[in-house]
Queue: 3 jobs
Job 1
Amino acid sequence: MRLRLIGDVVFTTPMIRALRRTFPAARLLYLVESSAAPIVANNPHLDRVITVPHTRGWTRISDDWRLSRDLRRERVDVAIDFHGGPRSALLTWATRAPVRVGYDVPGRQWMYTRTVHRPRELRPRHSVENQWDLLAAVDPGLSSPADPTADRVEMHVAPSVHAEVAVRLAKLGMPPDAQMIVLHVSAGNPFRRWPESAFAELASGLVATDHRRWVLVTSGPSDHGAAARVIRASQAMSGGAATRIVDVEGLTLSGLRALFDRVSLFVGGDSGPLHVAATSGVPVVGLYGPTLAERSAPWRPRDIPTASADAGPLPCRPCEQRACVPGDFRCLTRIGPETVLAAAERVLVERR
């Protein structure tokens, strides 16, 4: 069980693979909210994905009562709560599974039969490793260290989605030898948004040095304005190369994943699209403000080129992302576009 968010659901996919390898005859179910369901919808190691809405108030109470009833009917033997929130803990308990595994969060331990300690502080330890600890509580055979080569993050999409993306690129007039670079210019909260002006400088710099390069700009579904502003600003800086900075808004999560199989580089903040990119073989340059690359960098074989850009040591970094104490988001604004451009160039060379 991992209800949300996109990146966090991506980080559970190594555990899905490990469980299938350890219990090849098991029936594996995954419970997730609808917004993140595409991450696991086509996972070949799962038998069923149970999708639930993200509701609130009395609607959630009614939904969860029905869901609890349905989960009991599944006669689950082992329930693993990778989420650790109040709702997921309650639903784990509602399965009535003989083995219920979760973190020792105060006030929720009683809902599990086996608990794993989760320190409160933000440690420089990868999220996949933190969740892998829960597997050892399921079976001693799963206590070996997590390995990003053996159990990487993954996301599968239908062939029809790949075909749709191919049509979309053709309509943009993409030449056969184009070196496509995706810039994702927004994030779900202000603590992970690199300045739009920096993205604009980066886009202009990328198309300036190679006539084959095309920059494809994306943003979140509720923040299309960010993509439009970055495109306008970067085109104004780029002269004759301006036509190679284009908008690819409107892609679904599955469409975004299919796109990543075709591009040469992804650049973006520590948000859902970066982690979707990590499920592919595309090189990634990640921008880490209040978060740590040690905790959130792509979890995949180390021979896939990857770079991380951050502002270096700061007394307020990492943080809980509830309030910017200095007030200026310095962990993001101090990451210069020239630094990210240099990292992008290095990664593109490594990819060849």
Job 2
Amino acid sequence: MTTKRLLILLAVILGGMSSIALLPKQLGYQPVGIDLALPEFLGEWWGHDTEVTENEHSTLGYDTEFGRKRYQNGRGGEILTSIVLAGQDMMTGIHRPERCLNAQGWTVGESNLRVLEVPNFGTLRTTRLLNSRKIIYNGQVYPVRNICYYWFVGCSELAATHGERVWIDSRDRIVHGYNQRWGMVLISADISRDHDKFGNDEEETDIMLQNFIKLVTPKILTDSVKHG
């Protein structure tokens, strides 16, 4: 590449970076693509509100909003469903889900993409995490494993990973001059076989979570969200 072409390329890059810096960092009044009011009943599942920890409040932005329920069925199943909705400060209000999980005491392990076909909705791309932590019960230390599915919801689009969400934000800043207001959905369950010989193993826990996601997704996403 000649010196002249190199200088032109650098000018274009610097100009683009400058224009991004000048774009608004606030969300403005973008519509919300997700409903924080989780349903009380979903098929065989019933849910009750669960408190958000002080660590989570201190880690995220002051105007971050939450929706959280712990669901149970009549067969010993238990699923934690959390929605985190960013406020005006995107730097603190939306984040990698590992921050939430670490604040709850989990160590994040294996991560991979999973695509689910959701009835009455379409294709849902998600990230699946396998997490672990140790608990103390009656003076004994017990390992606990947990499966968590998450994805991000904008005012009109979905993203399966933090990197994908950041790419969409960069595009929107350059092309449209705004950010979508993002929410993050996390749905998780412990692998109960680890501490109960009659509990669910990893595969059974995975199937339980996927079936639950297929129930809850059409209930919490608004009509403005695009889907496959």
Job 3
Amino acid sequence: MSEYTDAEKLKRKLQRRVDEDKDSLAKLCSEMVKIPSENPPGDMSEIASFIRNLLENHGITVESYEPTEGKINLIAKIGEGRPSLILNGHMDVVPAGDATRWDFPPYSGEIKEGKIFGRGATDMKGGLSSIISAFIMVSDIFESLPGTLTLAIVPDEETGAEYGARWLVENRKVQGDACLIGGAPMDGCLIGEKGLCQLRLKSTGTPAHGSLPILGDNAIEKLVKTFPVIHSIERQEIRVPKELSKIIKISKDFYKESMKARNVTDESKLDAIAKCLDHNTVNIGLIKGGSKINVVPESCVAEVDIRISAGISPHEIKRQIECLLKEANKMDIECELLSDSEANYTPITERIYKLLNQSAKKIVGTELRPIFVSGATDARFFRLHGIPTIDYGPGDLLLCHAYNEYVSIENIVKTTKVISGTIIDFLCL
């Protein structure tokens, strides 16, 4: 099976199988969309059972890990030894939100006009359909696999992955020479992402009657006055690693094109969106304070989500913010680090990227664009443990977490073909 010609025959066989199973691919995605797997609350019992039964019905042994109730990880392996490739995807979806803002029931899984509609269709049950189907098909055609293919289906991606990908990697439940995640847009390949620094800021004051606020010290007002100070780090110029400079330029163009496709035409807004990729961004995501409308609040807490450019660490950002607060004479504001991760990326010289790009060129007809993104994904946990990881799938970046989410059936089919071809090349060549 190590001969190139044999690999080509296997790939052609897989491509035919994908075409024959097109309807099954769409149905699989639709059935998974119909299973609400919202996170929060994050109970994956129903969808994990569905996927497990599917795999076991194809004679595949599945291991299950549940580090906390409802947060179920599924691991399946075929073959043994090296090379070893991991296919990864997450089952959880963000809440559907206000049902009246959907044009269809958010968990309908309706198949119409070549699309599958519903919450999670693009993020990432379309991608799950591709990686699960590719895994099953490879299992079916190989009597003896020259290496190891691991399928890792995880919970908890939407809320930090403490019990999902992070738990699996840190507890060495999954290992490999490379990892391919099936959740990204298929006109690009996500090879890196910004860092994360999430902080909790707290102020204290003195309570008093609301009719005599001068007698108190308003903790909410004290904390709100720090927000311009926090936002000042967005203006900081950061020198990104040299090998990322060209990729960030490609990524900025990708973001602009994606926004224009969504009828965003304001050039200043497009430039600001692109600037997010090599500058820090600040989002005051949550604020809680006070006890009653007619009482001067004695405490206030804000949680701040800072996405960090490559070239600076989350701990350095925290230190800078503490210095800025001190310079602004706001030393009584407490600053606590809630969550952090370094900016991370997989060089495009890595074998997994080269093979995926080669497969995409043959099947889709275009060369992949390496994309560095503003958000955080499960890829960071694999990368930060030395596993080169890329993300390629059938979704649409701008439909993630949006109302009226859908995924194209054609994209699922193409993605399954590309991923199947990449698996063969990675394990056989």
